[in-house]
Structure prediction request, 124 residues.
Amino acid sequence: AKLGKSPNGEFLVRGRIFQTHKPVTFNQPWTNEEQKILEELLEMYPTEETEMERWKKIAVELGNRTPIQVQSRVQKYFLKLHKAGLPIPGRLPPQRNKNRFFKTGGKKIRPGQFSNILASKKST
Prediction:
């Protein structure tokens, strides 16, 4: 890892200030060995109702990564496999809608317009 010091005298790891409350593997790249083990663990631990339970089990097996680190790595790994057209061990993580706001096709909606539409549907 690239180590250095900031102008304030704080330790830098890969350009970021080292924080003692973070895990030792924070901001450290995944090794080829870790990636290989992760791929094996993804096969061993299938998708669960609550995905975080899966990440916790995989993190415990890895021994040096947190569930959040596993979740982040797997999400990026699945997306790369998907883009390459390769099979994904588990399901594709849900995609975040980049346009989070409802578009009305340029029409302005007046207050009460939806309730008028609903009322007319019920009466028929």
Remarks:
- The beta strands are 3-5, 11-13, 16-17.
- The chain has a mean pLDDT of 76.
